[in-house]
Amino acid sequence: MSTPTLTLDDSGPAPAIRLTGRLVTEHLGHVERAFATASPQGGTVRIDLDGIEALDTGGAWMIADLKARLEAAGDRVDLIDTDGQRAELIDTVIAALPEEEGVEAPARGLVPWLAGIGEKTAGVGASVMSLMSFVGQTLASLVTCLFRPRRWRTAALVSQMEETGFNAIPIVVLMSFLIGVVLSFQGASQLRQFGAEVFVVDLIAISILRELGILLTAIIVAGRSGSAFTASIGSMKVREELDAMRTLGLDPIEVLVLPRVIALVIMLPILGFIANVSGLLGGAIMSWIELGVSPSMFITRLQENTDVWHLIIGMIKAPVFAAIIATVACWQAMQVQSSADSVGRHTTISVVQSIFLVIVADAVFSIFFAELGL
User: What is the DSSP letter of 212?
Assistant: First the structure.
């Protein structure tokens, strides 16, 4: 039994693929790689079938697949067969091939369901380990820069502070002002039923200073700056700029990640304080309009009944929220694969994960401070 072979002949006016031997299913493994890599250059390609000693449907399918691949590349394919029997079998196989590839139905039952849960759990575990590793690399770069101040990227840090902080002030002010207006209006509607309208000041102050001011600011920053971090670094990875940086001896975490993390840690508390002031202003204006609480009375009750710890607690949360948002955003950027679709997908994931982790951290802080009696 002669082993099948595939050879390329470029000596003629048109490139030719010559097939010899027994091209049957039993021996297709010998020529599988040759069929997969055969790509003669030319407008017309001849496939010579006369040297084939035996041909079955398996071999005919391989020839049909090669013919389809060459035609998809823009070549014209001619089958050379003296007696016509082999070409007839190939045509029969081509006619029997489905026009669309079938899609395997997903497995059903208890075992596949448990397997799916296991795979997702393992994926979550791998993601957590990857994130922890990224956090470690970031902290190592931070320590290195602390001991070597010349490695600080001051220009990048200032640029990121402007982008994440200064440019975000308008949207933060508007959001916080409207939140204060809504809290004042809704609180007045409910407290008026009990003749306790004056307590709307306490409601606004505690809600904004302790929780809503910094939490909503962090959510806005996650959607605005966090997505920008992932998109910009992810696009650089797609364009292989990160590989170029490593080739030049530059650490992408030190050059790209560290300035963004530090800038957000510095600017989010400032944005949170601005949000608090704007929210209190909105609440004071609506209280004046809706309840007749004058600005002087609002300020007096604010000073008398609002503990400064409410403001301090909100400010304590801010750097933690900022570190979560920046770290998750940059980590997701490093997970981007070499496609624009991957950039968009990981940008969405980074925003969702950042907001989720910020809310979880806020819940942990609430329990912690409640246990401390603050």
Answer: I
Q: Considering the entire predicted model, what is its pTM?
A: 0.68
How far is 166 from 312, CA to CA, in rounded Å?
Answer: 22
Task: Enumerate long-range contacts of 64-71, CB under 8 Å, 24 or more apart.
Answer: 64/90, 64/93, 64/94, 64/97, 65/35, 66/17, 66/35, 66/38, 67/94, 68/94, 70/39, 70/40, 70/45
Q: Which amino acid, residue 303?
A: Q
Q: Which residues contact 238 (CB under 8 A, 6 or more apart)?
A: 336, 338, 339, 340, 342, 343
Domain spans of the chain, in order of start: 5-96, 130-372
Cα–Cα distance for residue pair 231/138, rounded to 1 Å: 19
Burial 165-201 (b: 16+ CB within 10 A, else e): beebeeebbebbbebbbebbbebbeebeeeeebeebb
105 DSSP assignment: P
Which of 209, 226, 309 lies closest to 263, judged by CA? 226
pLDDT at 87 > cutoff 80: yes
Query: Which among 42-46, 48-52, 192-196, 322-326 has the top mean pLDDT?
Result: 322-326
Distance CA 313, CA 358 (A): 15
Rounded CA-CA distance 163/223 in Å is 14
Residue pair 297/200 in contact by the 8 Å Cβ criterion = no
Question: Over the stretch 247-281, which tens digit does the pLDDT of each residue have?
Answer: 888 888 888 889 999 999 999 999 999 999 998 89
* CATH topology for the 5-96 domain: Transcription Regulator spoIIAA (3.30.750)
3-state secondary structure of 129: helix
* Residue 240 region by backbone torsions, left for phi larger than 0, else alpha for psi between -120 and 50, else beta: left
